[in-house]
Amino acid sequence: MHFARLLIFLFLFALPADIFAMTAQEIIDQVGKQNFSDNFRVFVTVKAFKGKKIISNHSLWLTVKVDKENSSFFVDFEEPKESKGLRFLFLEEPGKERSAFMYLPATGKTVPLDVDDPSVDVGGTGLTTEDLQGFIQKTSSEAELLREEKVDGRDCYVVRIPNAETKGERRLWVSKDGFLVLKNQQLDAQGKALRTFKVAEFFKTDQGKEFPRQEEIAIPAKGVHIDVRQENAVFGIEIPEELMDPDKFGTYKWKG
Hints:
Elements: H1 2-14, H2 24-35, E1 40-50, E2 53-67, E3 70-79, E4 87-91, E5 99-104, E6 109-113, H3 129-133, E7 144-151, E8 154-162, E9 169-175, E10 181-187, E11 193-204, E12 210-219, E13 224-235
Antiparallel strand pairs: 1-2, 1-13, 2-3, 3-4, 4-5, 5-6, 7-8, 8-9, 9-10, 10-11, 11-12, 12-13
């Protein structure tokens, strides 16, 4: 019996290490399961700089409704004064096409947006729809595990997700401890970095999970960097149906 166990141990020890490695899809699935299972609301400040000069400064509320593999976003601007009341809604519903809308308080009108354009600027903040979607990682049948490396001293998986339309790709650095996305980078077809989204600081929720407190976004071609900071995050909240209704989200009074 002991000899048989020894043979099994030696056999397992001799197997390639990769046989025990997680696949890229399993890693992405764990990101969603471990970190994004509850609805949440968070207050966000967004400052954009060109060199050392600040070019925009916004504050807003971000509300996220998580429904299995679908996540919808409601954005409500507080500052600056000229942006107050500006709202965005990004919807993902089972069995339906993704959709996006913007409410303009000056006119009282809601207009549809091209949800498939990742470059759409959210209210002049410099943030894109893809930056917001960075809160919720999506599945991808083409995802590939490239390697393992450290980010800020933490061991990470590096996952590649190709983009068939642009011939470029997205790369995620996912921590082995907790499956947190520490870094998210967009590359063009030549492998040049177009946009790098990196978490600079985390905080712990009441449930003991880590959640991003501050991110840094670099856009080399424009010489722009954006600082994003989250405060007053609450999790497991009930979200009124009106906030996820294109006909009502613009005027619904959800505060107080």
